[in-house]
Amino acid sequence: MKDPAAILEAVQSQSNWIAETLRELVQVESPSDNKAAVDEAVRLVAGIAEAVSGRVKIHKHKLFGDVLEVRFGPARGGSKPILLLGHLDTVWALGTLGTMPWRKRDGRYFGPGVLDMKSGVAMALAAIRALKQLGVSRPITLLLNSDEEVGSPASRPITERLALASQAVLVLEPAQGLACKTARKGVADYRLHVTGVASHSGVDFASGHSAILELARLLQTVAGFTDMRVGRTVNPGVISGGTRANVVAEHAFAEVDVRIARAGDAARVEKLFRSLRCADPACKLEITGGINRPPMERKPGTVALYKQARKLAAELGFQLDEAASGGASDGNFTAALGVPTLDGLGAVGEGAHADHESILIDHLVPRTALLAALLANL
User: Fold this and answer.
1) Is 112 in contact with 8 (CB distance < 8 Å)?
2) Residues 160-186: tens digit of each pLDDT
3) Phi, psi torsion values for 83, nearest 5 degrees
C-alpha cells in the first residue's frame, strides 16, 4: 500500500499544473454536436497524455467526435488495468466562452464544462503524474468519450469492451455535493407521434380529428406511469403540434424522459409505453425510442470500492460519503456489465449545464490525491 500522505504531497506539488491544464481544456470548447471542436479537445489531451508517458490510441468516428484511449504503466503484465472513464464533450455551444469566460473568483474556477467534466480529466492526468513521480507503475486505461452528453451512441461499445477487460472502473464525473456516487438511475427516451385528420376549424370542424387533443389524452396516461415507490419518474419534456390556430391539427408529438432505479423495471416501462392506444380511431400513434442507459445499481463490487475510497479519504484528511443520483453517466454501462464501478470521483462544484458552472478550488488537490491513492492501492 502506498502511503496516502506521500501521494497527497506529490499532488500538492503540481496544483499549478492542474490549474493550467484545466484552463487549457476549458478554453478549447467542445460541444457534442461539433465533431471538429471535440476532435481539437481530443488532440490537446492526447498531447498532454503522451507527455505523461501515455500510449495514445484515437478511435476515429465519422459523425461524432473521436474517442481517446490512453494506456499507462506496463504494456504487459498479469494484473488487469483500472479504467478511468470520462468524456470531453460538453453541452455548451461554440462561442459560449464569450459570455462564460474562464475565470477565477471567490475560490472557484468558472467556465463552460469546467465541472462537467473537464476538471475530472485534468485530475486524472494529475493523479497519474503524481504516481509516476512516486515511482508507482500499474496498468491504467484512460478512456475519454466525445458523445456522452448525447447518449454515447458511438462510444458505448468501446466503453463496454474496455470495462470487461478491467479490474474496476473509476468514473471522473463530478461529485454529488461532496459525495461519490454508488448508484445512478437508468434513462429511457420515448417519442410519441400522433397523426390525426386536418380540417378547417371554422368551415369544416366536424371532419377533423385533432392530433393535439389525442396526444393530450395520451400524456395524461403517460404521467400516470410515474411510480415513486420503485424510483420511476416519467416526464413529458417536449411537446409540439399543429400549424395554425384555425386548423385542426394533423400532427403532434411529445418527447418523454423516463428514469428507473432498477434494471428489472425496464421491461415494465417498455410494456407500459407499447400498450398505449389512441382513443380516437381516426388517429394513429407511432412510438419510438426506449432504454438508453441501464441503471447503475448499488451492488457489492461498487460498495467494496466505496469502502476503500472512504478509508483512503479519511487517511487524506476528509470524509467521503456516498450518494445516489437521478442522472446517468457512462458508468451506467460498465456497472450493468457487473464490473465494479465507482462514480463521482471528479471535482466538487455546482451549476453543471448552467451558466454559473464552477468548481471549488480547495477540493481539487485532496480529490485528486484520492484518485491517485485508489489507483495505487486497488
Assistant:
1) no
2) 999 999 999 999 999 999 999 999 999
3) -95, 120
Is 3 within 8 Å of 135 (Cβ atoms)?
Answer: no
Single out the residue of 200, 173, 96 nearest to residue 330, CA to CA. 173
Q: What are the structural domains, with CATH classification, of the chain? A: 4-185+295-377 (3.40.630.10), 186-293 (3.30.70.360)
Residues forming a β-bridge with 287: 192
SS3 at position 76? coil
Q: Which residue has the cell 450493468?
A: 336
Q: What does each C-alpha distance from 40 to 36, 122, 159, 254 come to in angstroms?
A: 6, 16, 21, 35
pTM above 0.85, yes or no: yes
Task: DSSP for 311-328, please give it.
Answer: HHHHHHT----EEEESS-
- Look at strands 251-260 and 186-195 and give their pairing: antiparallel
Distances, alpha carbon 271 to alpha carbons 81, 274, 281, in Å: 39, 5, 21
Of all helices (H) and strands (E), which one includes residue 309? helix 300-316
Q: What does the pLDDT read at residue 75?
A: 81
From the centroid of its chain, how far is CA 191? Answer: 22
Q: Which residues of the chain have pLDDT under 50?
A: none
Phi/psi at 354 (5° precision): -125, 160
Containing H/E element for 342?
strand 341-342
pLDDT for 285: 98
pLDDT of 65-86, one tens digit each? 999 999 999 987 778 999 999 9
Residue 362, Cβ neighbours under 10 Å: how many?
Answer: 11
Q: Are 250 and 199 in contact (CB under 8 A)?
A: no
Q: How far is CA 155 from CA 36, 87, 103, 166, in A?
A: 17, 10, 31, 17
CB 365 within 8 Å of CB 19: no
Cα gap 84→378, rounded to integer Å: 13
Q: Starting at the edge strand that comes first in sequence, how are the strands of the sheet with 233-241 ordered?
A: 233-241, 251-260, 186-195, 284-293
Residues 6+ apart with CB under 8 A from 169: 82, 83, 85, 163, 331, 334, 335, 339, 340, 341, 342
